Amino acid sequence: PQVHIKAIQSLSKQSRCTPLYVLSPLLEMSKWSSKQLISLLFHSSTCFTNDNTLFYMFTGMNAAVRATVRVGIYTGAKVYFVHEVRMTYTHKTVLLTSYIFCQGGTVIGSARCKDFHTKEGRTKAACNLVKLGITNLCVIGGDGSLTGANEFRTEWSELLQILLKAGKITAEEARRSSHLNIVGMVGSIDNDFCGTDMTIGTDSALHRIIEVVDAITTTAQSHQRAFILEVMGRHCGYLALVSALASGADWVFIPEMPPDDGWEDHLCRRLANQRSLGYRLNVIIVAEGAMDRSGKPITCEMIKNLVTKKLGFDTRATILGHVQRGGTPSAFDRILGSRMGVEAVMALLEATPETPACVVSLSGNQAVRLPLMECVQVVRLQHFFNSHYSELKFQESALLLVLSFENNWNTYKLLAHVNPAEVKSNINIALMNVGAPCAGMNAAVRSAVRIGILQGHHMLAIHDGFEGLAHGNIEPISWASVGNWTGQGGSNLGTKRSLPASMMEEISLNIAKFNIHALVIIGGFEAFVGGLELVTGREKYEELCIPIVVIPATVSNNVPGSDFSVGADTALNTITSTCDRIKQSAAGTKRRVFIIETMGGYCGYLATMAGLAAGADAAYIYEEPFGIHDLEINVEHLVEKMKTTVKRGLILRNENCNSNYTTDFIFNLYTEEGKGVFDCRKNVLGHMQQGGTPSPFDRNFGTKMGAKAVLWLTDKLKECYRHGRIFANTPDSACVLGMRKRALVFQPLADLKSNTDFEHRIPKTQWWLKLRPILKILAKYKISLDISEKTALESVIKKRGTV
């Protein structure tokens, strides 16, 4: 039977519609009864399924634990750990969580708990909580953990009555523990939980995968081999899909999108075509839950035998397995875990007996609260669709509606599965890098070039920024020439900080000479200012009346119009890992404080976020002015901490935070005031923050930004075609492509001038400044936390939709 795609889409888009309402059309189009369908969806009436654990280990969990403990104690609460999910409890203090955030795994243990599957086990758990006076429970895990926690909360009153009748608790104890509040934090490397942009542990898993892919690539190139990598993801192909985007893999198999019939021949043609173009390697990524349209699993060994037999390629298969769950957490996961922990404590403190159980999620750069069971129901529905693909015979649109990563999938298909256009558009689009180099620039160039070629355009590379444009250092760039650029750091096109104002005439002449119809500028604040100067120059030079788009790419993350810049995540991970190593260098020695200077110009993004990720005691930035009194408070605070069991301190300083309180000054101040308690060391990280291979986020972000920029230019060129030529002089023909919360949006350069501090090269409003109080609370400062801006429960269905 045919699936009523439009009906399901309509039902899912209704703001007050619960996911279970989708069952009615499913019943009509399937052979199952209502009871069978519900059984398949939710597996059983108990709180856990056989393959779920209450807590599952993943990197980033310790950061959430640390934040929950510290903020809980900050608010005056008494905090306990539940060890190994076996009803053993330990009261925790701030000091016991000092160094856990940089560790992978979980310090409180993770285990399957069969006792919790039974009423007797949950009754015992309730008794333990009542005896300790615990009325708030924070659960970190996936849909199984959160479902069980909600079931525990639902039957809480019944469990109290059982304990009361058995004489295990008193009436007074039952009264004091009359209700149980529960807040969940989502932890899963699969990123398969509905309502959140990213789950704790996913980014770290991507780091492990990309590290392996990069290492394998060098071997594959040397021996001209094809490699097949299996990554985790039984029901969700997020890891496989994003890894394929970030590594430029030739093919990806994911559960959500079974390949068309005859995929074997298509795959072989694709690999053979790549070799004919001169590529020395092939990479295929397979999610462990991949299957064909008949429901038959697609395995690494199956693909290896296919490629070896039909093409004769030297082929190897690698199953990454639990490597993806381990290792040091990435900077993103540490910050995410910390933010979720803070929001979870606030949600518990604000909860009432009538408040439904909620889960703390990430939406763009905001922490939000969502109804726990509504999220779980959608996740179960997603898993159901993927597991019963062959019976339901679903179409792509329905599956993508369920999993909401259509943007990633469509970008990957464009870059990897479509042949270049045979009909040319006679449009020339030029690309350049401007400003300081950063990781991810090459990924943006690669996707822009390939999307442009797919649109039928001629793509031109401008070397050395605006100077290269003025001097005519321009040449065509082909599909094959950018083949391996995704994982390369720096700028292969070459980049300079020069601005176009002094070279406007030469630039206009070369735009006319090379017949450039549109321009992509990839860079930092210089790219933004250079774009503005080109727009201003339109009044005098008609050749500059072409569509222009600026893609923010800088470690400083200081480009107006975007919450994030390409390259900032890589720099942040570099700083965080360096801080870890620096602190570890003092292990076993006497107490020591490290003063570390970060880049960023006048923008304190790197110092603040690295402070959150590395557990800094203070982070000095330009946006938050400080004086000698503030420095005195910081020093005294650190001296008192060092008199306890704390042995290492970390102070971060943005390079331009204050012209008088330099890194040397702060180092000398802490050295003098810490005499007899601790000694000091200083480190200026310098240009190592701009180097290295791009992080998975920067590769993926740059790829999507480059693709979207060229697609936007293609549409804009059609609008600006007048009287046989391109003429673009409206404000919206020169834009910054930036990420705002959850969406990639185009904003006119002229409109962003009013929100820009040109003297200090920063936006006037910056979202991450709201995280500064969290940094201080986690460093154990007794400050007042502004909670006037409370987060309300949001509907999952309202939030869903593609970017």
Automatic annotation (TrEMBL):
Molecular function GO labels: 6-phosphofructokinase activity; AMP binding; ATP binding; fructose-6-phosphate binding; identical protein binding; metal ion binding; monosaccharide binding
Entry-linked InterPro entries: 6-Pfructokinase_euk (IPR009161), ATP_PFK (IPR022953), Phosphofructokinase_CS (IPR015912), Phosphofructokinase_dom (IPR000023), PKF_sf (IPR035966)
Domain called Phosphofructokinase: residue spans: 59-347, 428-712
Keywords carried by this UniProt record: Allosteric enzyme, ATP-binding, Cytoplasm, Glycolysis, Kinase, Magnesium, Metal-binding, Nucleotide-binding, Transferase
GO biological process, one term: canonical glycolysis
GO cellular component: 6-phosphofructokinase complex; membrane
Source organism, top-level taxon: Eukaryota
Pathway: Carbohydrate degradation; glycolysis; D-glyceraldehyde 3-phosphate and glycerone phosphate from D-glucose: step 3/4
Gene3D superfamilies membership: 3.40.50.450, Phosphofructokinase domain
Family stated for the protein in its record: Belongs to the phosphofructokinase type A (PFKA) family. ATP-dependent PFK group I subfamily. Eukaryotic two domain clade "E" sub-subfamily.
PANTHER family xrefs: ATP-DEPENDENT 6-PHOSPHOFRUCTOKINASE (PTHR13697:SF56), PHOSPHOFRUCTOKINASE (PTHR13697)
Designated name of the protein: 6-phosphofructokinase
Species of provenance: Astyanax mexicanus
Organism placement in taxonomy: Eukaryota, Metazoa, Chordata, Craniata, Vertebrata
